[in-house]
Structures are given as structure tokens and as C-alpha cells.
Amino acid sequence: MMEDQLYRESLLEIYRNPTNRGEITKPDLEAKLVNPLCGDEIRIQIELATSKSQIASRQIRRAVFSGNGCAISQASASLLAESIQGNKLSDVNKLRGNDILKLIGMNPSPSRIGCALLSLEVLMEALGKVKS
Amino acid sequence: MRQVAIKQKTILDTEKIRKDFPILRREIHGKPLIYFDNAATSQKPKQVINAISNYYSRYNANVHRGVHKLSEEATQMYEGARKKAADFVNAGDSRQIVFTRNATEAINLVAYSWGRKNIKKGDEVLLTQMEHHSNLVPWQILAKEVSAKLKFIPINESGELRVHSSELGKYITSKTKLVALTHVSNVLGTINPVKQVIEKIKNLDSRIKILVDGAQAVPHMPVSIQNIKPDFYVFTGHKMLGPTGIGVLYAKKEILEEMEPFLGGGEMILEVDWEKSSWNYVPWKFEAGTPDVAGAIGLGAAADYLNSLGMKNVREHEKESTAYALEKLSAVKDLMVYGPKDPEKRGGVISFNVVKNGQVAIHPHDLASILDTEGIAVRSGQHCAQPLMKVLGIPAAARVSFYIYNTKDEIDKLIPAIEKAKRIFKL
């Protein structure tokens, strides 16, 4: 049944008790976006490992999210933050929408796909600031 | 035990009405469609669909141009639709009816053509806290352009406007040039006493112009513009069984005659020279280019359909549906309903949230997705009223809205669907 796909218990468990929810006082990278359709709001903050190498090859020491919204947007932000811990920025930059859908293990309807991908947009916005 | 179907006596013959709406035969996720998103757009009866199809298959031609038979027929039907629209809201002279794309465009037309000429630096436009973005953003654009100021009439705890004479006086100043307010709130359902508000404002200062947004009122209750006496009144076709793409601006003839055109082009001109042109008579001055002929004809057919039911009956049916739904919803644990509690004071719109410990416990998008799996279409989100959501202190809300084809049986099915969402979310 569709709702079982959409609202698997494991996803709801993450929504109720999300990992990586929090704030970093002095983040190296951060971004916040609001989905105007539903008012969902996600902020992602990243602290990088200290290193002299070029920024693209630097590692994420810690990534956290904050905000509010529906179960899909919040659980996907939590899972995304989890998946990028310790990764190189250049690898994180390669993440695409399909990777997020695999991560959350669902295929939302067209009207809900924005909920699932909001956190990726926020992450890319944060990474975009690296180049500038 | 033998099941005996007892046919309940209702104001409208919903069983008969439902047969006119082909879409109501659809199944959604294997369940019969329960369409509760009528405040967003209504479904269309075959009478409207056929009227549009007939225009294209029998007498399609441009209007006001040709002298040939088809053009004459199309023009007659298009102008006939204008008369039907005028009569539907008892607007008097149908030359006071301008066809637009929708209610939003009608408001933008007023802001652009009337507002830019009459609202100056330091002037004030008075709105309310319950306006749809369509009756807020055009005024923001205008206010920014001419350095005018926007003010807002607040709402009370039950979602009604604070419009007692003593309070209105606080918001009306010598700088107030326009008051723009909604007739019925698309979020709270509140029916504003627009006739009384207009009387009070005109008593304070008769020069102030008043615009009423009737997008949520005209489809659902008898509206008489000659009784309400606004300067401008707007509504849209697609929420009243008509097609998308056709809306209506009513304005007093003397105001329309003084207004500059909105868009330039064909149809809106009288004489054109290389350097300058003179404008056509109202309302055609405001209808540049080929209009939505099919849309207007569809709107006319929608007005005919609603007239055949009687708008008083439509209102009674919705009042009964709303009272019934409010009663059913009040029995659901942890459910917060927004807006007036008295069905007399509200249209068929109910916004609500599942709330636990003062917090929205199921995001309305999640709730709407789960209701969708039961075939129930509801709106979720901010309903194009972000500032109002802030006043209510919520991120978003779910909304059901009723129309002529909705039944108590459908409302009954809403309750277990909400309970199912609560089970999934372990509430």
C-alpha cells in the first residue's frame, strides 16, 4: 500500500528522533532555504576538518541540520547529514536527487518530491558558497 | 440484518447533481474520489464542458471583428456571458463587468490602472490580516512604486475582523485612499460583513474607494453588488464551476471611464494613429487582444447551472455541510480547527491541524498525503496566506472546502482517514 511506502516506520522513527539535528556556533559553511509551497524550512551547517589542502578536498568534520517541516523533509535532512559526515567536499558535490531518494528509500509523488529534495538543495547552496 | 437505505432529505439533490460531474466517477488509489479542495478550484459539470466544446466545434471565431455569421454568433455569446456574469452578482449595467484572466489579474488591473493614478506618496492602503496573497502583493508593488503605506485590520481570536465603528476609525485616516478586503477568507472561512464595513468607511470618508475580493464568496452564496455597494469587486470563474482563465472585475462605470487602460493592443482602441490612440469604451478599453471567448462562454454556462440550483440553496447546503463537518471534527481528539465556530459566520472552508502539546503533530502535507491514499483531496500548506499563518502561529494547515456535490457520507469518511494518519504517526 502506498502509505506504507511513503511513511515507512523506519522513516517516521527518524522523523521523531532525528540524528544530526543541532546547531554549530561557528560553521565553515551554512545555508537555509524555505519551500514556499509548504513553509518547510531547513538549515544545514557544516564544520570542516582543519587542513591546508584546497577547500574542495577538505573533509566534513560535522554536518547538522535544523528547521521544521513535514516528515519527509525532516527525515531526509537527517539522513543526508548522516551520509556526508567525514566525506570530502568534492565527493559531496556529486550528490544528486536520485542519491537522496535511495537514501530515504522511497519514491514520493511529484507533489512531494520537493519535500524530499529540499535538504539537498540547501546542501548545494552551502557548497556553492565554497566556490565564490 | 437487512440494510435499509434511508435517503436523507437534503436541500440540494446531490445525487442528481453528482451525475453532471464526469470527474466524480474517478477512483483515486482504488477509492472513490472525495473532492474537498473546492476553495482551490471547483469541478466542472458537463453543461460547462459542453458549452466550451460547442463553441469550438460549432461557432468558433474571433469576437467584435468579423461581419460573418460565426463572428456574430461568437460575439453574441461572449457579450451574453458578460450579461450573465453581471446578473449573477446583481451588478446592474453589464458594461461595468471587465473580463480578466482571474481574480488576481482583476486586482492587479485596479492596482495598475486606478492605483498608479490615484495613490500618491504618503497615502495609505488599508488591507486586512486575512488577505490572500493576490490581495496583498499587488498593493505591496504599488506601495513600493509610489511610496505609499500599507495598513492591516487585525483579526480576533475567532478569526473575525475587528471592524466595530470605533476600531475602524483607528485605521482610517485622512491619508486612506483605498480599502481592499476579502468577502470570505480562503483560510478561516470567515464571512466578512462587507456591506456594513463599506457603509462605515463611506460614513467616515466618502472619497475612500473600496475593493472586495469575492473569489471565495460568489461561488458559494447569493451576492448582490448593488446591495453591498463596493467600488470594485472581483471574482473568478474556475471556483464557480467555470473554466480556468476567466475572471471578472466589476467597477462602477464612472470609475472605469476615468481609469487609464491596463494593457495596450487590439480591441481596446477607438482610433489609432502612428503617435497616439484613443481608447475604446468601457469595458472593452480594458480587454486588449483576443479575449478568452471560450472561458467567458463557460463562465456563462456555470452561472446558468448555479442559477438553476438557486444560490440560496447552495449557501444552505454548504452551511449544513460545514456545521456537520465542524461537529464531526470537534469529536476528533487533538484536532485544532481555525476560524469562527458559528456556521452562520463562515463559508464552507475549514482549516485544521492535528495538534499535540500546542505543537502541530502531523505536518499538513503528511496529513494530506495520507488522506490522498483514501481518495480524499484536501489542500495543505499556507494557502497563499503566509502572513496569516504567522498571526495564527502555525507553519501551515490542512483545509477541507465543500461544494454542491459533497455529501455527509463523504464527510463521514474524512474522520477515519484522519484517525488513520494519527495511527501512522503513533498519536
Q: What low-confidence regions of chain A span 5 or more consecutive residues with pLDDT below 50?
A: none
Number of helices in the DSSP assignment of chain A: 6
CATH class of chain A: Alpha Beta
Biggest sheet features of chain B: 7 strands, mixed
CATH superfamily of the largest domain in chain B: Type I PLP-dependent aspartate aminotransferase-like (Major domain)
Radius of gyration of chain B: 23 Å
Q: Give the domain tally of chain B.
A: 2
Task: Report, as a whole number of angstroms, the end-to-end distance of chain B.
Answer: 35 Å
CATH fold topology of the largest domain in chain B: Aspartate Aminotransferase, domain 2
If classified by CATH, what would the architecture of the largest domain in chain B be?
3-Layer(aba) Sandwich
Structural class of chain B: alpha/beta
Helix content of chain A: 40-55%
Organism (chain B): Candidatus Woykebacteria bacterium RBG_19FT_COMBO_43_10
EC number (chain B): 2.8.1.7
InterPro entries (chain B): Aminotrans_V_dom, Cys_dSase_SufS, PyrdxlP-dep_Trfase, PyrdxlP-dep_Trfase_major, PyrdxlP-dep_Trfase_small
Enzyme class (chain B): transferase
Secondary-structure topology with pairs:
The complex is a heterodimer of chains A (132) and B (427).
Chain A: H1 2-6, H2 9-16, E1 29-34, E2 41-48, E3 60-68, H3 71-84, H4 89-92, H5 97-104, H6 113-131
Antiparallel strand pairs in A: 1-2, 2-3
Chain B: H1 14-19, E1 27-28, E2 31-32, E3 34-35, H2 46-58, H3 69-88, E4 97-100, H4 103-118, E5 124-128, H5 137-146, E6 149-153, H6 165-171, E7 176-182, H7 194-204, E8 209-213, H8 225-228, E9 232-236, E10 247-251, H9 253-258, E11 269-272, E12 277-279, H10 293-309, H11 311-330, E13 335-337, E14 349-356, E15 359-362, H12 364-373, E16 376-377, E17 379-381, H13 386-392, E18 397-401, H14 408-424
Parallel strand pairs in B: 3-16, 5-6, 5-7, 7-8, 8-9
Antiparallel strand pairs in B: 1-2, 4-10, 9-10, 11-12, 13-14, 14-15, 14-18, 17-18
Helix pairs in contact in B: 2-10, 3-10, 4-5, 11-14, 12-14
